[in-house]
Amino acid sequence: MLRKGIIILCLILSNRLSAQVNTDSLHAVINSGVSYREQINASLKLLENFQLKNFDSTLIEGKRALGIARKNTDSVSVAEIMRHVGVASYFKGNYDVAAVNFQSAIAILEKANQPAKLAPVYNELAKLYRKTRNLDRALQNYNKADALYRQLKDSTGIAMILNESGVVFEYREDFAEAINRYTASLEIAEKKGDSLSVSYSLSNIAGVYVIQKKYDVAEKNLLRALSIREMLKDSFAIALTYSDLGVAMNGKGDFPKAIGYLEKSNQMAEKLKYPELQSNNYNELSAIAQKQGDFQHAFSYFLKRSALRDSLYALEKTKQIEELNAKYETAQREQEIQHQKNKIRVQKLLMAGISGLVILTSLLLVSWYRRNKLRQETAMKTELMQQQEMAIRAVMEAEENERQRIAKDLHDGVGQMMSAAKMNLSAFESELAFTTEEQRKSFEKVINLVDESCREVRTVSHVMMPNALLKNNLGDAIREFTGKLNQKNLRVEVYTEGLEHRLDSNIETMLYRVVQECVNNTIKHSGASTLDISLIRDKDGISGTIEDNGKGFDSSDPEKLKGIGIKNISSRIEYLKGTVDFDSAPGRGTVVAVHIPIGS
To answer: Which of 108, 183, 213, 522 minimizes the number of CB atoms within 10 Å of its CB?
Structure first.
């Protein structure tokens, strides 16, 4: 309901405006040669009179009053004037200016220990945060104001905070708590016979009923509030009530009534120079015109609303408010820190001499201990890293030696025996007299199996001991390896650059094994149709990618990276002091990216 955005007028409760003020007589007092106290009291009364009737006059008179108060070093009156200026700035849409005035007033009044004057300022700052939807900060400031009013046993102030903070719970959609607070405020106001406070509680309760679409009950409460405000001749509150009635009747579908109320509200808002209220009313009128199919009037109202909104605050002002609040809180913390420093300084002066020497000696001992401990930890870490590196190197070398030994055994032992078996079988074939063709074919199958086993043994031994690296560079060795793959459904592309010259044998062997492991993983697990291998050497080292278009896996799952193959790849790259990244997702293939930092 519109009331949530603009009924921030409970400040009227704290001001207790009950009658019209003769502004001419107050100006006469201010401009006469009376005492300062009479002048400043007249200025404050004048600001109270203008505050919700003429915002521009409030700002003009506030500037003049600040000059008088500052000239007489009256900080408390400066804070009161800033509160009035902040309220007027708020209603004009100058939220950053309002925030500066409220926070400055709070700083002064906290230092001066003026709870009765401080509580209303906390309330105003809370409403500003509520307006910018910073609900947590709003509630913090409402709680501060409530604590002060309860300390002062000011039931009117307590009722006001119950009303104001109830809107925060409306924004949070905690309607039960909102109703509880409004009802509690209403009961306090009725006991005191405070009709003005009663009217605000009724408006707030009506707002919840509108949200709950209980329009008849809402209208009943608003009309009761309107009658009170008309009796009090509170033109500002009357304008807001007409606006709320317009919103309620729009929700109910009683468009003629809604239009009448909203137009009355706008007439009064224009006189009061309250653009935000006008803007919200035009927005409501535009919505009603659209429901009625009168798009020409809907567009006209929309243009009027836009023109008014352009003059109001933008999002940047909300940021400015946060920055100003941060500066204010920082200043408070700095004051506390400075206070603590002063206390410590006094204590240090009292404990001079022997105490100072003890502290200095203790600091030197602590410093020496920490430096010594740091040196020991650094030495231990260095030694541990060296041992880990030696262990990894030993494992890698042992693994490579074992591969070579097995490869030689396969090639020289099993391979030769298989070759001999084939030769004997071939020689034996001429001595056999096959009685049927099936017998001859079966014998030929045996010889073919032995022949295929020989080739398989040679292939395995070559894979385990890459002789290609003995006669070729890394790029050619990888091409030779991939060229021997017997994968009809897998197309392998190899691209190398800058590898024409030989590298350190350890680096070539480790990178060859990494590529070999990646290719084996692709063949075994991925179901890919293409495999692209790229190795490029530049001034920073060797960068490589092995990419397939297979089924992939979830590389963000740590469990998926604990396989033996992936661990083998990682340990070899770690041995070369390089980095490896696995990028994969189900259905998206797999990319293995490695980088080895070697000199150019």
So the answer is: 213
